[in-house]
């Protein structure tokens, strides 16, 4: 049941009817009725049409019947869980719908496993409803605006290639790259410039990956990237990534913001916060035969190192010294 908004009304003027297309359909699948109600209200107030499901089996039936453009799915539901729902969606409807998974678990391994099954984004409970709606709009609108980012491989394709390399005992380094400060940047400059920044990072990763003999770049979620390179080249690759981004970073900001070195962002309560320029946090983990790792273990190491690299003490790049990246 969708609320009637300015986006869904028929406007009559001088006897002529102007039809406004029906809003984007969002499927909300969660076994908690209070969560379903809260999300339904939030998305309908933002102009979406919603349908709901209380378990995985209902979600799959709704997917087939309504073919929604956006799916919000709880990771743990009765019947089919969120992972099974996502796999069914990708098998039957491909990569068109945007999928956001909600979970009460905070392990990096769970997040990576979710991306492996084909989700576009992943949020930990308790969720901020405003953030969820913003994430959905980000992914959904990015499909229309993104140009360079669309050339990156999806998470499933990168995972498959990583598995292939490990199964064939090929040395490989996983470079996990996060954009720090993207959300305040987008709130200050708007969605289009935020997506332009993401596209610039995607272009840079593609540019550098093409210089590697077996380089491969892909995207995870809204602001994370994964690149596969030869372990012997990992330090040179990440050094080039860091130095080139730093050299180009000022071009993403207005001159006045470059001069003062920060941006002011007002939150929804009216308070203003000062934010430093965006930066990249990079984590690198390698697998070298005969001591090969499972692909999820390798991805988890790289993701944890990227989180570690967010701290000022460590700096922008963190290596797993247990591997052979040196």
How would you concisely characterize the structure shown here?
The chain is an alpha/beta fold. It is built from 11 helices and 14 strands.
Characterise this structure.
The protein is of the alpha/beta class. The protein folds into two domains: 11-145, Rossmann fold, CATH 3.40.50; 148-319, Reverse transcriptase/Diguanylate cyclase domain (Alpha-Beta Plaits, 2-Layer Sandwich), CATH 3.30.70.270. It is built from eleven helices and 14 strands. It has helices at residues 33-45, 56-66, 82-93, 108-116, 129-145, 155-167, 182-189, 191-209, 234-248, 255-260, 295-308, and strands at residues 11-13, 16-18, 25-29, 49-53, 70-74, 98-103, 121-124, 172-180, 216-220, 224-229, 263-266, 272-275, 279-287, 317-319. A five-stranded parallel beta sheet has the order 4-3-5-6-7, with helices on both faces. Strands 9-10-8-13-14 form a five-stranded mixed beta sheet, with helices on both faces. α1 (33-45) links the parallel β3 and β4 (49-53). α4 packs across α11 and α7 (182-189) crosses α8 (191-209). The radius of gyration is 21 Å and the shape is globular. Mean pLDDT is 83; it is low at 1-21 and 145-150.
């Amino acid at each position: 049941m969708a609320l009637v908004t300015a986006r869904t009304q028929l406007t009559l003027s001088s006897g002529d009817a102007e039809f406004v297309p029906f809003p984007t359909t969002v499927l909300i699948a969660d076994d908690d009725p209070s969560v379903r109600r809260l999300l339904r209200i939030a998305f309908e107030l933002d102009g979406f049409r919603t349908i709901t499901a209380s378990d995985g089996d209902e979600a799959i039936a709704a997917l087939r019947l309504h073919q929604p453009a956006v799916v919000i799915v709880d990771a743990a539901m009765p019947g089919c869980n969120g992972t099974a729902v996502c796999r069914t969606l990708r098998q039957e409807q491909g990569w068109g719908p945007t999928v956001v998974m909600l979970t009460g678990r905070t392990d990096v391994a769970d997040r990576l496993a979710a991306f492996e099954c084909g989700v576009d984004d992943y949020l930990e409970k308790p969720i901020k409803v405003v953030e969820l709606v913003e994430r959905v709009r980000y992914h959904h609108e990015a499909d229309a605006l993104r140009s360079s980012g669309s050339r990156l491989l999806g998470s499933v394709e990168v995972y498959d290639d990583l598995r292939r390399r490990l199964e064939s005992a090929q040395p490989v380094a996983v470079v996990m790259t996060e954009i720090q400060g993207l959300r305040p940047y987008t709130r200050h400059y708007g969605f289009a410039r935020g997506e332009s920044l993401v596209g610039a990072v995607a272009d840079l990763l593609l540019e550098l990956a093409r210089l590697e003999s077996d380089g491969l770049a892909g995207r995870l979620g809204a602001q994370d990237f994964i690149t596969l390179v030869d372990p012997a080249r990992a330090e040179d690759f990440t050094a080039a990534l860091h130095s080139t981004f730093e050299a180009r970073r000022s071009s993403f900001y207005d001159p006045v913001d470059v001069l003062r070195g920060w941006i002011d962002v007002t939150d929804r309560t009216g308070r203003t916060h000062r934010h430093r320029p965006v930066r990249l946090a990079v984590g690198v983990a390698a697998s070298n035969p005969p001591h090969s790792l499972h692909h999820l273990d390798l991805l988890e190491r790289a993701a944890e190192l990227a989180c570690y690299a967010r701290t000022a003490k460590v700096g922008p790049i963190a290596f797993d010294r247990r591997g052979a990246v040196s």
